[in-house]
Amino acid sequence: MSDHCPLFLNTRILNEERRKWHFKFEAAWLVEDSCELEVRRLWNNATGLIPELLRTASIGLDSWFRKLRAARKITTTELRKRLETLMEMAPTDETLAEIVDIKLALNLENGKTELYWEQRARVNWLKHGDKNSAFFHS
């Protein structure tokens, strides 16, 4: 009697398996007002068991955030153009109030963008480290 069991391995990698998408949570989602509503909408519209619900929600959130980032770029560009126009105008109470509002809106958009890139920088540092090598230490 042998205690060995045959083991079959498939070592072929299919194209579908190589390009697997992995869900990553974005901290920038939490500062968006529409995030909670989007999660509820995606979750309520999805069908199936929990894994399918999670996959549908994750794909939907990724798509939602891509559209949001594109819209944010357009908004930021428009705000900057409007600020330049206001800075060239004669200063009045209305003009100054609008300048303050636009600067606040730009700071908010810049903060959201900074949060997005801060998470990217941290992920890269954790993934690649600070490249301390034996050469560096010697």
Number of helices: 5
Task: Spell out the helices and strands N to C.
Answer: HHHHH
The total tally of domains equals: 1
End-to-end C-alpha gap:
57 Å
Percent strand equals under 5%
Please tally the β strands and state the result: 0
Question: How would you state the average pLDDT, rounded?
Answer: 83
What kind of sheet is the major sheet? Answer: none
Radius of gyration: 24 Å
The unreliable regions are: none
Helix content: 55-70%
Task: Tell me the overall shape.
Answer: elongated
Structural class: mainly alpha
Organism: Hibiscus syriacus
Protein name: Reverse transcriptase
Q: What does this protein look like?
A:
This is Reverse transcriptase. It comes from Hibiscus syriacus. This protein is mainly α and 138 residues long. It has one domain (26-128). It is built from 5 helices and no strands. It has helices spanning 15-18, 35-45, 50-88, 93-128, 134-137. α2 (35-45) packs antiparallel against α3 and α3 (50-88) packs across α4.
Which terms would index this structure?
138 residues; mainly alpha; 5 helices; Reverse transcriptase
